[in-house]
Description:
Layout: E1 2-3, H1 10-13, H2 17-24, H3 32-54, H4 64-89, H5 94-100, H6 102-133, H7 138-149, H8 153-170, H9 172-177, H10 180-187, H11 189-197, H12 199-204, H13 206-209, H14 212-243, E2 246-255, E3 258-264, H15 266-269, E4 278-283, E5 293-296, E6 305-311, H16 315-318, E7 328-335, E8 347-353, H17 358-366, E9 374-380, H18 389-399, E10 402-407, H19 427-434, E11 441-447, H20 449-461, E12 469-473
Parallel strand pairs: 8-9, 8-11, 9-10, 11-12
Antiparallel strand pairs: 1-10, 2-3, 2-7, 3-6, 4-5, 4-7
Bound molecules: flavin-adenine dinucleotide (FAD).
Amino acid sequence: xxxxxxxxxxxxxxxxxxxxxxxxxxxxxxxxxxxxxxxxxxxxxxxxxxxxxxxxxxxxxxxxxxxxxxxxxxxxxxxxxxxxxxxxxxxxxxxxxxxxxxxxxxxxxxxxxxxxxxxxxxxxxxxxxxxxxxxxxxxxxxxxxxxxxxxxxxxxxxxxxxxxxxxxxxxxxxxxxxxxxxxxxxxxxxxxxxxxxxxxxxxxxxxxxxxxxxxxxxxxxxxxxxxxxxxxxxxxxxxxxxxxxxxxxxxxxxxxxxxxxxxxxxxxxxxxxxxxxxxxxxxxxxxxxxxxxxxxxxxxxxxxxxxxxxxxxxxxxxxxxxxxxxxxxxxxxxxxxxxxxxxxxxxxxxxxxxxxxxxxxxxxxxxxxxxxxxxxxxxxxxxxxxxxxxxxxxxxxxxxxxxxxxxxxxxxxxxxxxxxxxxxxxxxxxxxxxxxxxxxxxxxxxxxxxxxxxxxxxxxxxxxxxxxxxxxxxxx
Length: 476
Ligand SMILES: Cc1cc2nc3c(=O)[nH]c(=O)nc-3n(C[C@H](O)[C@H](O)[C@H](O)COP(=O)(O)OP(=O)(O)OC[C@H]3O[C@@H](n4cnc5c(N)ncnc54)[C@H](O)[C@@H]3O)c2cc1C
């Protein structure tokens, strides 16, 4: 492990005071946002269950056909509500995004998605059984009758097929085999599916035919979902990118396979970005421009420029090295909650591995701090591969922070944040040797999945509460 000893004069310039003032205006993320958005989600689910009860759902359970029809309706209602909630979770609504963070939202979206799909399949089976029990058409005759004989049912079947496609391609094994863009394109069919399966409930559902309140509730939920997508997913990013142009200012090679891109322009002034956050970046430099890639800012946003540093892992990131100054940029964001607005403690540990150090570099620059408050741990395979190491040393010196590089290859056969030469230590012991009062720290972590899990586990064992450990995943 090596510690910084560089005291360059240039560091004063990078002391972060300017951006700290700017960010103070953005303020902390209110903690009640999490409670309020979580409660709103549960209220929607309880609301549809209440509709089912109010529509006589419980009384109908007395007979076999009633049992199937009534539970079929309940599963359909809850499945649809979850489908809409799933869309809202990924609509980039700022209060939801800032309260939960992308990582947790993606995990919840996945869980809610599979639950909703399971309930949707149960709904189809139960309703078919319910109708079959009360007619002489048999299962197949009833199925046919349900498809062609009721309004909105053909649309619902088409929507179900779209959702089947989305679910099948999202199962982990299938997902790994698909290119990101192919998976993403198929995933967009989820919106079509959600749009097609919902109308049949209003046209045929017993809860809605008799109750204006239920109909208003359902339309309201649907309208809120559509508005969230139109405003936050499409409108706001388009407006922010188009009203004042943002262009590439500089493209710099950091080392083999790593590029730093700086952009600027009037449009940047209006973006409420903080260190540690990320944007979806599109560069209008020819074919492939429509594809967005997420990158975290690698310097504290100063209201005039934004910067990120990327390693080349595929076509999209390799292309960055060939960008030319003046290229127009479209941005979506800022997103992510790995920033100072969620900080609750004075002392901070910033841990980055590989390219995951880039948001830590921005945080080191921006976080308000007194000398000794912040420690940066930079995990690298070799010092030669340490991205942005010189900048980190300069900044650490200027801000009175500690910067340590932890260098070496991984330990074989053990999921650990440590290198081989430290294999005799436990993950927690090693962390406490670097930061003895770790329990009093806020911990920010970015790197590979296994590495982050090892850091998190060690931090929790050392006494840091889980609410003070924050991770950012660089993978979807
Ligand atoms: C929140 C976040 C912040 C990130 N910040 C940085 C950063 O600061 N520096 C950096 O080097 N890398 C960062 N990444 C990773 C970076 O986005 C991918 O390496 C890059 O998009 C790969 O694109 P590609 O075309 O080069 O490679 P591909 O071969 O197309 O993709 C390789 C892998 O990258 C991921 N990926 C690709 N496109 C996307 C996308 N549009 N959205 C989400 N994941 C995608 C997928 O897991 C894919 O399997 C970040 C990722 C996320 C999710």
